[in-house]
Design a protein that fits this description.
The complex is a heterodimer of chains A (375) and B (276). With 375 residues, chain A is of the alpha+beta class. Helix content of chain A is 22%, strand content 34%. Chain A has a six-stranded mixed beta sheet, sandwiched between helices. The relative contact order of chain A is 0.12. Helices cover 76% and strands 0% of the residues of chain B. Chain B is built from twelve helices and no strands. Residues 272-276 of chain B have low confidence and may be disordered. Classes of the chains: A alpha+beta (375), B mainly alpha (276). The A-B interface holds A 1, 69, 71, 90-94, 96-98, 100-102, 104-109, 117-118, 121-122, 148-149, 151-154, 157, 165-166, 169 and B 165, 167-168, 170-178, 181, 185-186, 189, 269, 272-276.
Chain lengths: 375, 276
């Protein structure tokens, strides 16, 4: 069965030229008795921006989203939408589209009736609301399925209905709470692209919550990494991935080699460090300051060298090579540490090298990031 | 190698069904026995009946003492069902999915009429209604019935609500639904089976209720069970059996409605295939 595409459309006529959808959280704090779920959060979403809250369970990301939607009341701070404080507004007056984790479609209503619901609540005349609902279903690729009940639709189709339902009334922004959790990998990737395309064509702001870093990387204009109720790092996907500020962020965003380091000197965005058993290194310094340091090198940035180098390199024993299909994962014991090196199977740099062989690895200075070791 | 065969189910079931048959008969026969007695043609209650005739049934409906008792029971049941459903359902929805201090106490209060002995309630209501001057009509009886019916409706509605996805309420709210709309579109469809069950429970509790109705009876406010009770002592006619047969028939109809409703919902759920 082919998965239908969500058709991009021109922005609906009649929308204000001033872009709407700016969300701002100022010093927002949420406590449950003794427990601090969200700790003085400052967050700003620009109109049309796709922002993802990324973090493990318990990081406060879902709570934050619930506070923006109005389902949870913040203990202190303020939430603003398009410059106006909404702290006292109940969810139904905030004009935000929400897609829940299990879609929460009304089981006794058809797909069309589900989509029409928001318009009904706004007293839109029947004929117009039916037309707009059919329009929305068209746009998410469900033309003709409006009459079906949710239980007659597949997971992917239900998600599309949930999207159509949340967008049909032209909300200021769209909030999505881990909406892909129930989908299989292929469908998930397809939907990621579709949602992103839809968002771009509508120019709507999105606040997306997920614990899946691949998803965050694929869809976001900006990733906000959260841990224990606080924002740890915020920035475009490329920046957060390649320039994590702490070892925790580096490990959360993907595999990485973390080598404890001592800083010898810093100058103009570069630092000279001592990597213990791995000798000297020259790394990117973006101003990370702390008590203990480490250098983070992604496995795909390590390469095999033919000969040992003076710096940014190591010599060691090839422990194992695992063929993962598209990539090969090597484990190398060098300088007293186990390093992970990933290369494309087509490269086959260490092809045929047996376990136990001596290998040389190296990396470029600008691919190694100096960061703070949180411990 | 020794082959193990599954025990043939037919053989296992026989002893169990042989045991359950007499139990079933013991439970059902005393209830059904009123029907042949009601259809008996004689001035006194006799068993076994010596003929089938509708004379007693006709006599029942021609007797104003009995028809007014029937009418009184219906009125009390009407009050009980309406108020029981309103209070029981409201309590179930209000207490659903919320946590607050003292919640258990509130639930206990709602369920209390089920636990307090009926005769205690009867005396309390009797004194209360006299003190507020509400006597001589079916209204105080109906109100008392409503009180004991409410816990049943609360329980059946609460059971239906267990199947409610909490995200549905938030979903409706985010789309602009106010409290009433949320109730209408999210709660009602889910609790409807519970409400119907609860209403039927409330009805049967009220129709059957004897003690409180006895305490608060007055001319014109005599319910069917009370009339039956008095007549058994002083005026043993087949009309009593007709009354019983009537109640049994009503109860059976109520039960059949329930069964048909449940079966119909199950079969419609099965008929809808899931899309590929």
């Amino acid at each position: 069965m082919s998965t239908p595409t969500i058709a991009p459309t021109a922005r609906q006529p009649g929308t204000a030229t001033a872009r709407k959808g700016a969300i701002e959280l100022r010093q927002v704090r949420k406590t449950y008795g003794e427990v601090v779920a969200v700790d003085r959060l400052d967050l700003s979403i620009q109109p049309g921006e796709f922002v993802t809250l990324l973090g493990p369970s318990g990081s406060g990301k879902t709570t934050t989203m619930m506070m923006v939607a109005g389902f949870e009341e913040h203990t202190s701070g303020s939430v603003m939408i398009d410059g106006a404080p909404v702290d006292s507004l109940p969810p139904r007056e905030r004009n935000l589209g929400v897609v829940f984790q299990n879609y929460a479609l009304f089981p006794h209503m058809s797909a069309r009736e589900n989509v029409e619901f928001a318009l009904r609540m706004r007293r839109v005349p029947k004929a117009e609301s039916r037309r707009r609902a059919d329009d929305a279903l068209d746009r998410v690729g469900l033309a003709g399925l409006g009459g079906r009940k949710p239980r007659q639709l597949s997971g992917g189709q239900q998600q599309r209905v949930a999207l159509a339902r949340a967008l049909v009334f032209n909300p200021a922004a769209l909030l999505l709470d881990e909406p892909m959790a129930a989908l299989d990998k292929r469908l998930r990737e397809h939907m990621q692209e579709e949602i992103k395309a839809l968002q771009k064509s509508l120019g709507i702001s999105v606040l997306f919550v997920t614990h899946d870093q691949d998803e965050a990387m694929a869809m976001s204009d900006r990733i906000v990494v959260m841990k224990d109720g606080r924002i740890v790092q915020s920035g475009p996907p490329e920046e957060v991935y390649n320039h994590p500020v702490t070892d925790w962020v580096a490990s959360f965003l993907g595999d990485t080699n973390l080598i404890p380091a001592t800083v010898i000197s810093r100058e103009g965005g570069e630092a000279v460090v001592d990597l213990g058993g791995l000798g000297a290194g020259r790394v990117r310094d973006r101003g990370a300051r702390g008590d203990k340091y480490a250098v983070s090198i992604r496995p795909e940035h390590l390469t095999f060298r033919v000969a040992p180098g003076r710096e940014n390199s190591g010599t060691g024993e090839l422990v194992s090579s695992t063929n993962l299909g598209a990539t090969i994962r090597h484990r190398i014991m060098a300088g007293g540490r186990e390093l992970q090196l990933r290369e494309l199977s087509s490269n086959g740099g260490a092809a045929g090298q047996p376990a136990g062989a001596t290998v040389h690895v190296g990396w470029d200075a600008d691919k190694a990031q100096l960061l703070v070791l949180e411990g | 190698m020794k082959r193990f065969s599954a025990p043939r189910p037919g053989i296992r079931r026989k002893p169990l069904s042989l045991l359950s048959l007499p139990v079933f008969a013991f439970l059902v026969v005393p209830t059904l026995i009123v029907v042949p007695v009601a259809l008996n043609n004689s001035r006194y209650i006799t068993f076994p009946p010596d003929g089938i005739s509708l004379a007693a049934v006709q006599g029942f409906f021609a007797d104003p003492a009995w028809t007014s008792a029937l009418s009184a029971s219906m009125q009390a049941a009407g009050i009980a069902v309406v108020l029981g459903v309103v209070f029981g359902a409201s309590a179930a929805i209000g207490l659903h999915g919320r946590k607050f201090p003292g919640q258990q106490a509130v639930v206990g209060l709602v369920l209390a009429p089920m636990i307090v002995p009926t005769v205690v309630l009867a005396l309390a209501f009797y004194q209360f209604f006299i003190s507020v001057g509400l006597v001589g009509s079916i209204v105080p009886i109906g109100l008392a019935h409503a009180v004991i019916a409410t816990p049943y409706v609360y329980l059946t509605t609460r059971a239906s609500l267990a199947g409610l996805n909490p995200a549905l309420v938030r979903s409706a709210q985010s789309l602009g639904a106010g409290t009433l709309s949320v109730f209408r579109h999210v709660h009602m469809p889910v609790i409807l089976p519970g409400l119907i069950s609860g209403a039927l429970f409330a009805f049967s509790v009220s129709i059957d209720e004897t003690v409180m109705s006895l305490f608060m009876q007055s001319p014109g406010a005599t319910t069917l069970p009370v009339k039956m009770f008095t007549d058994i002592q002083f005026n043993l006619t087949p009309k009593i059996a007709v009354s019983s047969a009537l109640l049994v028939t009503v109860a059976t109809i109520g039960l059949l409605i329930q069964v048909v409703y449940v079966l119909k919902r199950r079969s419609t759920a099965r008929m809808m295939p899931l899309a590929a």
